[in-house]
Specification:
mainly alpha, globular, binds protoporphyrin IX containing FE
Length: about 325
């Protein structure tokens, strides 16, 4: 295990989280077109950071920093890491940040079209997911983790966690489509709100059952219970933030400009969404690391059940 590499991967993941907040501030302030050009801002490399340009150009600067950090991380990984799949993931992260930068530029050039802005918001989450995974794969706890014995239930925990992860990702896409469908001075489309609230129910069901199953079956195994508790707590916060975001967005078309309560709450909702996603990724990766592919106890109990059934039939 390379401590330096792991610390650097954690730094890149934290910087990416900060970048997601910086990006969400651009959207909530409706500052995406503060400058209509790219890669320069108003024809300058470093314009005066006034008005909405503070948010838009500030976001570009944070993005440039994260891009450079990712280049260093990829080189670091290629130099120090022996596992081929981690090396590949490092290169994938670099390609991801380049694609994300291009999407950012494209959304400005084409004046924030819904598909490009939504793709930019979604790829941001995927890139964050990649940096978090790199931090997990290079950590000491990942290297030292030992397989746990089989699960004592009839649902594979690995699949439960993966289902939670997929539903959260779909929910992030619906959220991004919803958010970019209407600016602060327009009402959000009712159909998408309904889809997003239904998505929240499904996420609560899948993530809730994955986390509770971890806590019931693997009490004391902090490798699994820590991310499960964190994901559950963040989900509760996210549901409240979602409700608050909805209420402030309901009122915002009557406001003279994007007001701070709406900006703060919607940005917090995007950021907490990223954290729910990140902790579920950690939980899922760890579940795949230490738990068996199929529940042996399920197989043995269903085997003993079918054996008992056939012996009963034979007796009859
Ligand atoms: C390097 C990686 C980048 C990441 C991870 C990133 C991430 C984000 C995120 C999370 C948002 C908020 C989405 C939302 O609130 O729904 C955003 C918005 C935005 N980003 Fe980036 N960004 C990056 C690079 C760039 C670059 C290079 C530009 C160049 C112009 C850019 C321009 C924008 C614009 C204009 C918005 C607002 C879009 C809108 O309001 O529709 N981004 N970004
Ligand atoms: C599982 C729980 C939830 C997750 C993971 C989640 C995630 C998200 C994300 C990530 C976005 C923005 C996406 C982006 O632009 O990148 C978003 C937008 C939004 N969400 Fe949620 N959400 C959840 C629950 C809810 C709930 C329960 C409500 C309302 C009752 C809600 C209301 C909204 C609203 C109104 C927006 C748009 C905000 C805006 O226009 O600025 N969300 N959601």
């Amino acid at each position: 295990m390379n401590k330096g590499l792991n610390r650097f991967a954690i730094l890149v993941a934290c910087a990416t989280f900060f970048l997601i907040i910086a990006g969400a501030l651009v959207t909530s302030h409706d500052a995406g077109l503060a400058t209509p050009d790219w890669p320069l801002s108003n024809g300058q490399f470093f314009p005066k950071m006034v008005g909405n340009l503070f948010w838009e150009h500030g976001h570009r600067m944070v993005a440039t920093t994260v891009g450079m950090l990712t280049i260093v991380l990829t080189i670091y990984i290629l130099m120090k890491e022996k596992r081929q799949w981690v090396r590949r993931l490092g290169v994938f992260a670099l390609l991801g940040v380049i694609a994300q930068g291009l999407l950012g530029g494209l959304t400005v050039k084409f004046m924030l079209p819904l598909p490009v802005s939504t793709a930019h918001a979604t790829l941001a989450q995927l890139f964050f997911c990649t940096t978090v995974s790199l931090a997990v794969f290079t950590s000491r706890s990942w290297m030292e983790a030992r397989p746990l014995h089989e699960e004592k239930g009839n649902l594979s925990l690995r699949y439960l966690c993966a289902a939670a992860l997929v539903t959260i990702f779909v929910q992030l896409i619906i959220g991004a489509t919803l958010r970019h469908s209407a600016t602060w001075d327009q009402h959000l489309p009712a159909g998408l709100i309904l889809a997003h609230i239904s998505g929240a129910l499904v996420v609560t069901l899948t993530l809730g059952s994955a986390a509770i199953t971890v806590l019931r079956r693997h009490k004391g195994e902090s490798f699994l219970t820590q991310p499960a508790i964190l994901a559950l707590a963040l989900l509760v916060v996210q549901l409240f933030l979602g409700l608050a975001a909805y209420l402030t967005r309901l009122a915002s078309p009557n406001d003279p400009q994007p007001l701070n309560p709406m900006v703060g709450i919607t940005v917090a909702h995007v950021a907490c969404g990223a954290l729910v996603f990140a902790t579920t990724i950690v939980l899922t990766l760890r579940a795949y690391r230490v738990l068996p592919a199929t529940s042996e106890s399920v197989q043995s109990s269903s085997f003993s059940l079918s054996a008992r059934n056939s012996s009963l039939k034979a007796e009859l």
